[in-house]
Amino acid sequence: MAKGALEAAVLDAELRAQGRSMGECFGAVRDWVDCGVSVGIAPTLEELLDEVTGYLEAGYRRIKLKIKPGWDLVPVAAVRELIGRDAMLQVDANTAYTADDIPLLASLDPFDLLLIEQPFAEEDLATHVRLAEAAATPVCLDESILDVTTAVDAIERGATSIVNIKPGRMGGFLEALRVHDACRAREVPVWCGGMLETGVGRAANVAIAALPGFVLPGDTSASGRYFAEDLTEPFVLGAGEHRGQMRVPDAAGTGVTVRDDLVRDWASRPVVTIGA
């Protein structure tokens, strides 16, 4: 991730000097990208449904539920009933399951999920292959995909039919572009994952999500979901025909400007220690 951050900074500086946007450099084919939201493990089912309802009202076009053993079938069934059969729903296990859970994960098929993301350990491609053979729901890999080599290997072995591209995890946007191109050449859909990016990282993620192979909504949520104040002008969801979408920055470089006043303010705040 440190390499990815440095690479992004160099790209930003070079593109600003050229007067080109990241979207133009990467090969973006759209001005707006569909946005999804990732929903964590809630304390109660009622709180989960309330949270999902709020995201639907905000306009998000896809819901992703985090699941783990003991928190899977019931919340998935409840959310599917809440949002209806036509709404996009997927689950993310973050490697929480083992081969013994293949029958349980296959039992998610009736809920018409877009995908099951990374159910098993990142190095355990063999078990992902077994699940792909046992279930109708597509298997998507996240943590297992470190670069174009691991992506192609997983695809050719049948361990994944959808890939989550996280540029930071891959060491930067140049490697992420290689993964995108390899997946597109093999007709494997991709989508853009996200972490706790400020507006700087979010801008670059939105730019790469505008490439032609990114055909599923990513985790590029609005700034307000994470920050009371962002380091840049906040990213917000569109309205009207662009409800549930985010605009791709078209200014030079990342297309956003860091708020120096906010950086100075944060840097000068005193450290407060709580407890002994």
UniProtKB/TrEMBL annotation:
Record SUPFAM superfamilies: Enolase C-terminal domain-like
Top EC category: lyase
One Pfam assignment: MR_MLE_C
Catalytic activity, EC: 4.2.1.113
GO term, biological process aspect, one: menaquinone biosynthetic process
Top-level taxon of origin: Bacteria
Gene3D superfamilies in alphabetical order: Enolase-like C-terminal domain, Enolase-like, N-terminal domain
Domain Mandelate racemase/muconate lactonizing enzyme C-terminal: 45-138
Cofactors named for this entry: a divalent metal cation
Keyword vocabulary terms for this entry: Lyase, Magnesium, Metal-binding
Gene Ontology molecular function terms on file: metal ion binding; O-succinylbenzoate synthase activity
InterPro entries: Enolase-like_C_sf, Enolase-like_N, Enolase_C-like, Mandelate_racemase_C, OSBS/NAAAR
Record-given protein name: o-succinylbenzoate synthase
Annotated organism of origin: Agromyces binzhouensis
Name of the gene this protein is made from: menC
